Amino acid sequence: MELRKLSPFISVSPQISIEDVGVAASHGFKTIICNRPDNEGEDQVNADKIGQAAQKNGIAFEYLPVISGNITDHDIRAFAELMAKVKGPVLAYCRTGTRSCTLWALAEAGHLAPQALLDTAQQAGYDLSGQQARLQQRFAQSSLVESDKPGNYSINKHTVVIVGGGAGGQAVAASILQRQPQTDIAIVEPADAHFYQPGWTLVGGGVFEREQTKRKMHDVMPKAAKWYQTAVSEFRPDQQRIVLENGDQLAYQSLVVATGLKLDWEAIPGLKESLGQHGVTSNYRFDLAPYTWKLVQATRKGNAIFTQPPMPIKCAGAPQKAMYLSCDDWRRSGRLNDINVEFCTAGAALFGVKEYVPSLQKYVDDYGIQLRFQHNLIAVDGPNRKATFAVTDNDGNITNVEKSFDMLHVCPPQKAPDVISHSPLADQSGWVDVSPETLQHKHYGNVYAVGDVANAPNAKTAAAVRKQAPVVAENVLSTLAGKPAMAVYEGYGSCPLTVERGKIVLAEFGYGGKLQPTFPAWLVDGTKPSRLAWLLKEKMLPWLYWDVMLKGKEWLAKPKHLSHRPEPQGAPDACNFEEKK
């Protein structure tokens, strides 16, 4: 069987045999489309035989015959409608593959540039130059046709569309532009400010001023990218489009989803109404981090409770960071003995990677913190300063326990944004469904995700984004070139645990909790508190964020690569790793 890949979603082939169907199944194809009329040639295997073989191999089969040299507008519409509903990856075939390739190009000409289609076909071995005028006509007419539809919305076309202008979206854009400066990139982001969120812990600890963590979006947005200052209302991956909140659409050749996650304040009754008053605060919000520091300074005695919800959450160590810095200040000022500190976590352990627990436990003991495992915050009564927790015992029984507080620092439950969880891109939990290694979508090969919105089982940290962005950038460019995604993310995440003012336990780990230290142990032993790690957090990491990561500079972040990869594949898995030479 002679496979010729046009995109991660579709490949074409000359006439296939019954035996080839099994080969197609082994390559991961989910649908086979026959574009060749039966009995066109004496040596031809008719569609019903191929269909039967496909059924035995668990592959869907579609028969859409097209007469050679006579592809009609009806044929093109039928092919486009079929492609919009079938499950990929798709294998389409005819006598030589030319008809299938031509159908694909003419169907895609409604939103992709003719030259890009001609180049892709040429790379696959098909010369469609005779279709150039028809491709250009369909491309030109598509905007006119779409603008006349109800609502008078417009369609703009870009090579790469990135949804989200936070750390992930901008880092990917910058990395792509470092590799191919002329790439046509659009970034969809409604906010007018960009935040260095890892700095909010230090704001809540009295180390940073809030304004140090904020810059104007216009000042940090890559100048070579087109910025749409709006939000996305719908994803249409089958059409390779997104819909903006005003109804306009953006067509793309490759999509990067970098929306981040949603802080679900509403999930805990009474919490949202209490924030910023009654002693209720959270470093997870820009406007509330200064209130945390105000409460730390004002608290003289009583109960201080720090909470952590069920995973996944952004920066799993952040709830503890706030607690340790607060305790350190209270100890320095001689107030700690008069304050009862509790860490109420929905989890069953202090930290998910065991190598860091001994150092953290020592600080818990030194500060006199009471650990309350399997305590999940379910309600807040701000005016009466009461917090209710669902407590799970060792037998799985749940009881509600009410606690009084003078200060309550809350880490809110977190989930995927609604626009993601309600889209075809989402897994059962609502996150973008990607390969954990290549970050390529498991069903839509020209879609990638970066950062908190991806369902990869890594810690959701800015450090993870720094390692993910080059991987996604490189794989996007490979996809655009019709090549498989080969760059690999190994799950790296970093959590600088601020155990006291001036010292940090620098947790760095990847998939499965495997330690991935950046520096040798003689310089920084991440399992132990270190002053050098504090200087890294306070002085170096903000610079690394603003001037390295967001500029596409990949210092200590060059991706590794798969040593081999089966083709074609809509849902890539890891093979062997090797450093890029």
TrEMBL record:
InterPro entries: BLH_phosphatase-like, FAD/NAD-bd_sf, FAD/NAD-binding_dom, Prot-tyrosine_phosphatase-like, Sulphide_quinone_reductase. GO terms for biological process: sulfide oxidation, using sulfide:quinone oxidoreductase. Residues 3-110 form the Beta-lactamase hydrolase-like protein phosphatase-like domain. It comes from the Bacteria. One of its GO terms (molecular function) is hydrolase activity. Residues 159-282 form the FAD/NAD(P)-binding domain. Gene3D superfamilies: FAD/NAD(P)-binding domain, Protein tyrosine phosphatase superfamily. Residues 561-581 are annotated as: Disordered. Its cofactor is FAD. Keywords: FAD, Flavoprotein, Oxidoreductase, Quinone, Transit peptide. This is TIGR01244 family phosphatase.
